[in-house]
Amino acid sequence: MRILVTGKNGQLGKSINKVVNTGNGKNNYQQDNEFIFVGREELDLSSESNISHYFDRSNKFDVIINCAAYTAVDKAEEECELANQVNHLAVKQLANIANEQKAKLVHVSTDYVFDGTGGKPYKETDKTNPINIYGETKLAGEQSLKEIMPTNAIIIRTSWVYSEFGNNFVSTMLRLGKERDELNVVSDQIGSPTYVTDLAGAILEIIKNKEFKEISQATQIYHYSNKGEISWYDFAKEIFKIAKVDCKVNPITTQQYPTPAKRPKNTLMNKAKIAKTFSVGISDWKESLDTCITTLKAQQ
Ligand SMILES: NC(=O)c1ccc[n+]([C@@H]2O[C@H](COP(=O)([O-])OP(=O)(O)OC[C@H]3O[C@@H](n4cnc5c(N)ncnc54)[C@H](OP(=O)(O)O)[C@@H]3O)[C@@H](O)[C@H]2O)c1
User: Fold this and answer.
1) pLDDT by residue (tens digit) across 178-221?
2) From CA 25, how far away is CA 35, in angstroms rounded?
3) In what order do the strands lie in the sheet containing 104-110?
4) Which of 124, 162, 194, 232 is 20 to 30 A from 289 via CA?
């Protein structure tokens, strides 16, 4: 299969690249597949003509994994047009292209399509109701994709993604923890973190799966994150514990930490569907955090 991966410089794009190019991944994934990784230099999703231009000049793909997204949640409140172009209109265009090429499309979405007031882990069929621009644009992307591709696509909603690559909650906490003696972290937003290597592994397992390879399977949404139900405050405390950083963490409320974009209160997701359909393992959040911090330390 020729597999296109967009967003090669982001957390997920880098992680998929690392998994398929190192260790066992080289044998497991590269044997029958050719992976093509592109960033905004090659495929700029902010421009319709650039997207067309890229695909007009490439050979056909069998699978497109869309890891690129406008992910600056607060900035999206101001840059709504750009966020909508990248998270919605570009996804719509990718879906049309995937149809033309008879390619499968794997698209990544977010827990922020929910308003966070559900009270129990969200299932894929639960009502969406985004409360910020980022969530609205991601939901619009999902809806267009489903409309254009009633078959042959999957949407994976994930949450609180962190990694050993670039800026994310874990790297930010580790940096601040070294600079300060104490930190205030929000304790009334609940969810599950997702170690990007686990997500990359899940996506790669799915595209190898017989179920996924079948032609004209109905398009489905799946939820994926690590196992656990925590707040950002719990997350910060565990980061410092594992990394042995001496920094006190004080719980604060969302009200005490105002941000331009509203955040949903509880976006815990039910992962039973993805686990059952594709036999994808769901790792415990603490174990995955430990792996990430060990990897970060080895890189230093
Ligand atoms: N991060 C999270 O906490 C989180 C939570 C829930 C869901 N998700 C979803 O998970 C997926 C992967 O997220 P991530 O954490 O890997 O995000 P990320 O690290 O922010 O990476 C996103 C990538 O998209 C690229 N991109 C942005 N605008 C683009 C454009 N106009 N044209 C081409 N590429 C563009 C960025 O390119 P540059 O590197 O050049 O800027 C970046 O490499 C996304 O769909 C995101 O919505 C993420």
Assistant:
1) 999 999 999 999 999 999 999 999 999 999 988 888 878 899 99
2) 12
3) 34-38, 2-6, 63-66, 104-110, 153-158, 220-223
4) 124
Residue type, 70: Y
* Cβ of 159 less than 6 Å from ligand 1: yes
Q: Evaluate whether 234 touches 160 at the Cβ level (below 8 Å).
A: no
Q: What is the DSSP letter of 214?
A: S
Over residues 117-127, the mean pLDDT reads 95
- Give dist(CA 44, CA 53) in Å, integer: 10
Average pLDDT, the chain: 95
Match 């999902």 to its residue by tokens.
Answer: 142
Ligand 1: residue of 4, 5, 11 to mutate (most ligand atoms within 8 A of CB) is: 11
CB 264 within 8 A of CB 189: yes
Bridge partners (DSSP) listed for residue 191: 230
124-143: b (≥16 Cβ within 10 Å) or e: beeebebbbbbbbbbbbbbb
Q: Provide the token pair at 231.
A: 């707040």
Nearest protein CA to atom 34 of ligand 1, as residue: 40
